[in-house]
């Protein structure tokens, strides 16, 4: 699989959020100011030290691609993955009703009241700090356009498509800046796609990535808010008046997941698609074959909802099952999703398991 200008067999990376060092979360300096630079020397040092620690865990774990860890500042990762961007764009008020999506209703839906434009860089600080800490290829993760559009209470644009395209143009500006500063891979995290895709998601994505000299991956998430899988609501929820975290029947059906992505995602101008296999098994790989997916696929083979660290042999077995659907020269490997809900020492051990399992299969392929 091509990573930058290098061809890497079964390249390894992690997805999304990583546990911050405990001293950083909740600290007075753990807030990332708006603007291009972190202007306070203590905050800058703490921010770069935090990303340096996360980079160290990935390098010690043997990963081939180093991620920024989604260090946004503060101790509420699932809130900041929405609000962090919106407070750096014009046109938004950070107030609104609960988000009308299963498991995310504990968050509020920000309100779009005017024209959306990027006012401050989103992830230039993360890129610079990660680049400073490693010489390996760097991947920076963004919350997906579909997520931001679906979570918005829209009082300005005529419809959700127009809203999403406005967000996409703001993201395109930021993507260009990251590419110009040496980012190797930009990842978009789309955790509403499995609920069904309309006529605007791929168009907005393609506007966002247009003319940007960088690899783009899309991580499609099966749900990980507080370690909770995504699900479809049922009649047991109506008495509560809203979708409330974990208030659902134990047998509530999950979304159709990968089937919902196709054929839409075939038109996406991306370099790789990524979703979990470790927890759910290989059934969701069948749509890749049925729809003749010919681009690289990055398989999540580490279960981030379990506190038990997989053995290298267990990971290798999962990889072998993925190879029944995706050829080795088009396969990358990752964690199922972000590791944010795990203690850091367990997260670090799972990164090592990912690397060791990949090494076992690489050795077999080279025989």
TrEMBL record:
Q: Tell me, what is an example of a GO biological process annotation in this record?
A: methionine biosynthetic process
UniProt entry keywords in alphabetical sequence: Metal-binding, Zinc
Cofactor dependency: Zn(2+)
Keyword Oxidoreductase among record annotations:
no
Domain (Cobalamin-independent methionine synthase MetE C-terminal/archaeal): residue spans on this chain: 10-191, 263-358
Q: Which CDD domains match?
A: CIMS_C_terminal_like
- Per UniProt, what is one GO molecular function of this protein? zinc ion binding
Pfam annotation, one family: Meth_synt_2
What is this protein's name?
A: Cobalamin-independent methionine synthase II family protein
């Amino acid at each position: 699989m091509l990573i930058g200008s290098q061809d890497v067999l079964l390249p390894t990376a992690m997805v999304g959020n990583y546990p911050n060092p405990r001293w950083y979360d909740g600290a007075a300096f753990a807030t990332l100011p708006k603007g291009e630079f972190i202007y306070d020397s203590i905050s800058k040092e703490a921010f770069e030290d935090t990303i340096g620690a996360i980079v160290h865990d990935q390098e010690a774990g043997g990963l081939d691609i180093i991620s920024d860890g989604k260090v946004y500042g503060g101790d509420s990762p699932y809130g900041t993955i929405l609000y962090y961007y919106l407070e750096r764009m014009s046109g938004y008020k950070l107030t609104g009703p609960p988000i009308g999506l299963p498991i995310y209703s504990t968050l509020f839906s920000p309100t779009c009241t005017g024209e959306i434009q990027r006012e401050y860089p989103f992830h230039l600080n993360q890129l610079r700090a990660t680049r400073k800490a490693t010489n390996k290829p760097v991947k920076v993760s963004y919350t997906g356009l579909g997520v931001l559009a679906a979570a918005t209470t829209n009082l300005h644009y005529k419809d959700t498509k127009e809203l999403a395209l406005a967000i996409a143009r703001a993201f395109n500006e930021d993507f260009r800046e990251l590419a110009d500063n040496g980012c190797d891979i930009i990842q978009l995290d789309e955790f509403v796609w499995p609920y069904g895709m309309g006529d605007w998601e791929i168009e907005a994505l393609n506007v966002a990535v247009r003319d940007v000299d960088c690899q783009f991956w899309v991580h499609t998430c099966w749900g990980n808010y507080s370690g909770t899988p995504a699900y479809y609501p049922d009649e047991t929820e109506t008495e509560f008046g809203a979708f409330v975290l974990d208030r659902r029947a134990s047998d509530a059906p999950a979304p159709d997941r990968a089937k919902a992505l196709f054929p839409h995602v075939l038109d996406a101008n991306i370099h790789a698609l990524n979703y979990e296999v470790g927890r759910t098994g290989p059934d969701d790989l069948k749509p890749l074959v049925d729809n003749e997916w010919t681009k690289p696929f990055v398989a999540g083979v580490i279960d981030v909802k379990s506190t038990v660290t997989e053995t290298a042999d267990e990971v290798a077995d999962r990889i072998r099952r993925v190879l029944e659907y995706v050829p080795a020269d088009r396969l990358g490997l990752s964690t199922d999703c972000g590791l944010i809900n795990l203690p850091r020492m367990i997260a670090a051990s799972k990164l090592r398991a990912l690397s060791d399992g990949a090494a076992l299969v690489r050795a077999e392929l080279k025989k």
